[in-house]
Write a structure and sequence with these properties.
Helix content: 25-40%
Distance between the termini: 50 Å
Radius of gyration: 20 Å
Order of helices and strands: EHEHEHEHHEHEHEEEEHEEHEHEHH
Largest sheet: 7 strands, mixed
Number of strands: 14
CATH class of the largest domain: Alpha Beta
Structural class: alpha/beta
Number of domains: 2
Amino acid sequence: MNNAITLLEAVNLALNHALRNDSDVVLLGEDIGVNGGVFRATAGLQATFGEHRVLDTPLAEAMIAGLAVGMSSQGLKPVAEIQFMGFIFPAMEQLVVHAARMRNRTRGRLSCPLVVRAPYGGGIHAPEHHSESTEALFAHIPGLKVVIPSSPQRAYGLLLAAIADPDPVLILEPKRIYRSVKEPVTDDGKPLPLGRCYTLRPGRDITLVSWGAMICETLKAAETLAEEGIDAEVIDLVTLNPLDIDTLLQSVTRTGRLVVVQEAPRTCGIGAEIAASVSEHCLLSLQAPVRRVSGYDTIMPYLKLEQHYLPNTADIVQAAKQSMEAL
């Protein structure tokens, strides 16, 4: 298939491929079967593969995560959906205390090859529990990979890689761009490597780093900066844990400047970790302080104020210009 499809359709395509080619893959979650999920990411899969492969569960996130841990420890490859990231907290005990520690706890005798998918982030005029960006909470957990695709191609390849991974992977899908971004995706079953950044736009003057839906604003900011003679390199972080810090350090060593863009609240975010790592390893290369563009340290507001909370292209351009002005 080479027709342009959405990120949401790419997720469905990858799940279809995994179910079709690996009898150990099982999907489970709230309303994912008959209804195809809230966003229809699993639409049509239960009709194709049956109720024993695509399971509708009760509204019980702790149970969903617990089932996934049990299934994975006994040879299955469960892909569990949490309806919204804001509902994932009841599942944290299973993910943090059991899934992420299974390999270490059993000294490698058991692994936990499970995937948890969750729509995350703001921008769709939903209540606060449906719009959170708390990825840093999970990126802090050893043994749990955290992946955020920002395009249909990356969503397809990264999801297949996550399903094939012998350890637990949390995939956060930026719902703001579920249907707004399209590109051709070939259903060839080829995974993309986890733990690697992607340079989406090369540049020489400044490095812009982001992930998820904010990649769209970051790329637009780079275009605006180019019109003013500033050549910005744009890097899509993709995997938050493990972090491909080497790619970031190589870029900042060349450009001497860094702006990190995150939708999440500012304090203790992924941007702070990147800023600290770059300062530790690239201090003598930096020509300006590392700048962060982020959401606020508040609860995500309701829809009338949502766009005031989310960083925008102008915010990124301003931060980049301030960095360029520093001597």
